[in-house]
């Protein structure tokens, strides 16, 4: 640790434990917006102009049967699918009274092997979301009705 001429540590903004004081950073401005990693910049400089050649080499290796090259090419051409359409007929949801029937149909489909557990979980989230929205709408309707009754009540 740097020391001043009197033998005491310099005031560097750090505690003597080597850590900065709470609320004080070693770089208060942070990383500049838009700055890029030095390693990434170096790799881009090395590969500049070689992308077409490297891509063709990977394709040639894949065509020659190199399994890693095949995987690399397929992963770049066809990224993994995140969402797959599910062919399942969910009963129509119009009110909170329909929620039990919809949930029951999802459970039956899982039991019959028509839906995976993951698909059923996603459908259940959709049903729950509808349930919350329906509950909110029904509460709003009830409150509005009560407010109107209170306004129309001659005693109030």
Describe the largest sheet.
none
Low-confidence stretches: none
Number of helices: 5
Q: State the end-to-end distance.
A: 78 Å
> Topology as H/E string?
HHHHH
Helix and strand composition category: mainly alpha
Radius of gyration: 32 Å
Number of strands: 0
In one word, what is the shape?
flat
Strand content: under 5%
Helix content: 40-55%
Averaged pLDDT, please?
83
What does this 3D model show about the protein?
With 156 residues, this protein is mostly helical. Among the domains are: 38-77, no CATH class; 96-151, no CATH class. Helices cover 53% and strands 0% of the residues. The chain has 5 helices and no strands. It has helices at residues 38-47, 51-63, 67-77, 99-111, 117-152. Helix 2 (51-63) crosses helix 3 (67-77). It is flat, with a radius of gyration of 32 Å.
Give keywords.
156 residues, flat, mainly alpha
Fold blueprint:
Elements: H1 38-47, H2 51-63, H3 67-77, H4 99-111, H5 117-152
TL;DR?
With 156 residues, this protein is mostly helical. The protein has helices at 38-47, 51-63, 67-77, 99-111, 117-152.
